[in-house]
Amino acid sequence: MEALKFKTVEDLLDTQDERVELIDGEIVQRPMARAEHGVVQHRASVELGPFDHPSGPGDWWIASEISVRYSLHQCPTHDLAGWRKERLPERPCGVVDVPPDWVCEIISPGHERKDTLTLFLLLQRQGVPHYWLIWPEERSLIAFQLEGDTYRVIASVTATDPDERKMRIPPFEAVAIDLDYLLG
User: Fold this and answer.
1) Which residue of 5, 21, 58, 125 pairs with 51 in a disulfide if CB–CB is 3.0 to 4.6 A?
2) Domain housing 78
3) Nearest C-alpha neighbor of 159 from the set 144, 176, 181
4) Pair type for strands 102-106 and 130-135
5) CATH number of the domain that 100 lies in?
6) Is the residue at 165 inside a domain?
7) Mind listing the pLDDT tens digit for each residue in 47-69?
8) Quick check: is 23 in a domain?
9) Per the confidence metrics, is the pTM higher than 0.85?
10) For 24, left (φ over 0), alpha (ψ -120 to 50), or beta?
């Protein structure tokens, strides 16, 4: 019997397929792009755009579909990720080796386990301060913040709640995010 060989970032970079990522030493196919996913990803970029703009309220680099190398066997591609410029002064390029300060994953049907468990635990271990999960079909968002070594929920909202149409959610609390637009 042949021993299981964990794939590395080098194996990932040698792959011809652009829609793959490295999770737990395995090169896995990313989900097929869906309209709901693309709309939410675009709208999140629009809502958070001021933080990436020189005249905005925060000094961030925010990118979509960006690969981050956390270790030799972990290189997921995040739907959205952001770095504070004080930690990463130069704009990220290529595969980024610095863990983000914020990650947002948009849940795709059939791939929930990766985002809600595998990446959740990886980002928690790596000390990523903020992790957001968005379910386009349910029009909901859960935001986590690292407290010590553990994530805790700091926001859990749906687009149907009229009291929560606009919210200030860390780490972007300087601007009220229009959740009806983002999730709707």
Assistant:
1) 58
2) 34-183
3) 181
4) parallel
5) 3.90.1570.10
6) yes
7) 999 998 888 787 999 999 999 99
8) no
9) yes
10) left
